Amino acid sequence: MTAARLLHLRTAALALLLALAGTAQAQPTPQLPAVLRDARYCEIVPVHVTREGLRASVYNTLGFDDCPADKWEALTRRELFRQFGTLAVVMNGPRHFLMDGIIASGATKTGEVITVGGITLAKRAEVGLSLHQAMGPAYTEQTIDRDTTYRFDAGKPVFQLTGPDGSVYVMQAYAQIVDPTLTYAELPTLGAKLTLPPGWSYATHTPEQDLLLVANGTAIVVQDDLKNTYQKMAPR
After folding, report:
1. Which residue has the higher pLDDT, 135 or 115?
2. Beta pairing partners, 46
3. H-type helices in the chain, by residue range?
4. pLDDT value at residue 230
5. Mean pLDDT throughout 52-69?
6. Cβ-count burial of 71 within 10 angstroms (0-12 exposed, 13-18 middle, 19+ buried)?
7. Which candidate, 36, 35, 37, 58, places its Cα nearest to that of 46?
8. DSSP letter (8 states) at residue 186
9. pTM of the prediction?
10. DSSP code of 177?
11. Mean pLDDT of 54-64
């Protein structure tokens, strides 16, 4: 083999390796839907045991697609356990967002992108769980690590819980997990369906100015007994 031929082969091999490396590093970029309120999404939450306790990673489909029902329903526990290397994985969905805008930063904005069963998801949060939180009932506070600002437009309804101590929690997403037929149109009267603990109440509020829910590193959330999720508002 001539020196020129050998040089040509080496150059071609190097170009192929660079092309493959570029392909491996390329990740799809999520694009938020034009209308975020009532946008459907799903989450996959693997839970790991660490020295600090239970740790959950939250991956969701927002910005990639609307979590097609056929692909979501085809996912198996075995496939998820193999993908994440853990014995506990929560399929959290389908859900629908209720805010009108999201501003994300830090890891919340640039999280790892993965594909499971043909569904693309991005890592959006880390959750530290105590055993009580992991096994706890509805209306139990949980702390989530994320940097986000959720915007609820003025003149549009927000749905909220108020706890016994006066704390207010604004619904960030409703779920079709416990009640697959639940729709956005039913949310104003949802309180009649909930089994609220003593001292808790549910109400609809229409803000006159944009409502901003800010999480600078952490957010405190609760779920009701239908697994709808609410973020705690900062005290006024």
Report:
1. 115
2. 89
3. 3-25, 69-74, 77-84, 107-110, 131-135
4. 97
5. 86
6. middle
7. 58
8. G
9. 0.79
10. S
11. 87
